[in-house]
Amino acid sequence: MGESFVHPTAIVDAGCELGAGTKVWAFAHILHGSRLGARCIVGQNCMIGPDVVIGNGVKLQNNVSVYTGVTLEDDVFCGPSMVFTNVLTPRSHVSRKHLFAPTLVQRGATIGANATVICGHTIGEYAMIGAGAVVTKDVPAHAIVVGNPARMAGWACQCGEKLHFDYNDRAQCASCGSQYVKAPDGQSIADAPK
């Protein structure tokens, strides 16, 4: 897998950890205390930290800032210029660092280009946030959400394809063949029993 790569114009503060095979591209800045796993890609003009934890295989496209209070689990994808926040009521003249609201993006989730994630929420595993969406509440695992505010538009397979459920609330992914079943309340899905 090899050592990490840091572009000559990027800045990685002392005390940061970069996993094997991680690449940090031009004009990115990783602030003190931040930890990135293996095989991450940090695009041009990204900012991370301080004290941010990012899992393995995470991809941050150009112009993404990951602020204190945001945690990205393994295999998360952040599209170009998407935005995280970490304070609900910011004022330039009032320090609210003690009010950072944590945001958790769970394994395999995708956040589309120019989307905004308001702090204090969890984006579930393999959820798909549409480009330009504004996330104002928790997003269930595998949910597809779009719009402002973001609202449900369907369910996504682990591979990223949209699922189509039959009258028995079961779906089989047309791309990879994975099978899912909706919970009785319709608010979540799970792998179908074999």
Q: Can you tag this structure with a few keywords?
A:
25 strands, 31% strand, 194 residues, mainly beta, six-stranded parallel β-sheet, nine-stranded mixed β-sheet
Explain what this protein looks like in three dimensions.
Helix content is 0%, strand content 31%. It is mostly beta strands and 194 residues long. It has a domain of 34 residues. The strands form 5 sheets. Strands 1-4-7-10-13-16-19-21-22 form a 9-stranded mixed sheet, with no helix packed on it. A hairpin with a 6-residue loop joins strand 24 and strand 25. It is globular. The N and C termini lie far apart (36 Å).
Q: Biggest sheet, open or closed, and with what strands and sense?
A: 9 strands, mixed
- Distance from first to last alpha carbon: 36 Å
Mean pLDDT metric: 96
Could you state the order of secondary-structure elements as H and E?
EEEEEEEEEEEEEEEEEEEEEEEEE
Spatially, the strands of the biggest sheet line up as 1-4-7-10-13-16-19-21-22
Indicate the structural class. mainly beta
The radius of gyration is 18 Å
* Strand content bin: 25-35%
Give the beta-strand count: 25
Assign a percent range to the helix content: under 10%
Shape: globular
Number of continuous helical runs = 0
Poorly predicted runs are: none
